[in-house]
Design goal:
It is built from ten helices and six strands; from the N terminus they run ααβαβααβααβαβαβα. It has a single domain (52-204), classed as Rossmann fold (3-Layer(aba) Sandwich), CATH 3.40.50. The chain has helices at 7-22, 29-42, 57-66, 76-81, 84-90, 101-110, 114-121, 137-149, 167-177, 192-204, and strands at residues 51-53, 70-73, 93-96, 130-133, 156-159, 182-185. Helices cover 51% and strands 11% of the residues. The chain is α/β, with parallel strands linked by helices.
Length: 211
């Protein structure tokens, strides 16, 4: 059996297939890049029907990356999926506070999830940064509450928690009440790879890839 082994050629062929599957749209180039990257990551063209991108989201994300923001994630898996070479070229770091000892201790005392505890303890680090939540609805609910009560203002919220308990509702709240630009996926779809794919689509528009 003959199959392709070159990573660049495989990705290029995948993107061509995705373009054919999704058909012609009048999406701006970066919106198209985000949608195609999500479909590429998930293997599911139906995602194109569920993605919601705030009108200022792409500009906000690009400007934040150019300014050397931090990307703060709810779980390490999001950070793992982000292309580190691209981040390094931009002078951008990804941070996840989920496994900090203080987070574990406080979460055990309160009975809250570590994801929401991590965001509460990191509230002063959220302003002006890109927040990427790919797993925990409780983290997204907490972030939105901090935005409301503590006047926290991230540069961009990427909210794609996945599952059947709170995920859909947290994203609906994001779309209804977010005080800053956002990118999300409606319904129960989502996950850490999707959040990472969105970050990668933004960074790839700013740097030349060599991986």
């Amino acid at each position: 059996m003959i199959y392709q082994i070159n990573p660049k050629e495989i990705e290029e062929k995948s993107m061509k297939i995705i373009s054919d599957l999704l058909g012609s749209h009048d999406w701006p180039p970066l919106k198209k890049a985000i949608i195609h990257r999500i479909v590429h990551t998930s293997g599911d063209p139906d995602y194109a029907n569920w993605i919601e991108i705030h009108p200022q989201a792409i500009e906000a994300g690009i400007n934040a990356l150019k300014a050397g923001c931090q990307i703060i994630t709810d779980v390490q898996m999001v950070a793992t999926g982000i292309n580190k070479n691209a981040l390094n070229k931009l002078g951008v770091e990804s941070k996840c506070f989920l496994n900090e000892p203080e987070v574990r201790e406080v979460a055990q005392k309160t009975g809250e999830t570590r994801s929401m505890t991590a965001f509460k303890l990191a509230e002063k680090k959220l302003d002006g940064n890109i927040i990427a939540i790919g797993n925990a609805p409780t983290a997204l609910f907490t972030l939105l509450e901090l935005c409301k009560t503590k006047k926290i203002k991230p540069a961009l919220i990427i909210g794609t928690p996945v599952g059947f308990v709170g995920a859909k509702e947290s994203k609906e709240l994001l779309m209804a009440e977010a005080p800053v630009p956002f990118i999300t996926v409606r319904g129960t779809k989502g996950g850490s790879p999707i959040a990472a794919a969105i970050i990668n689509a933004l960074t790839y528009s700013l740097v030349e890839r060599n991986d």
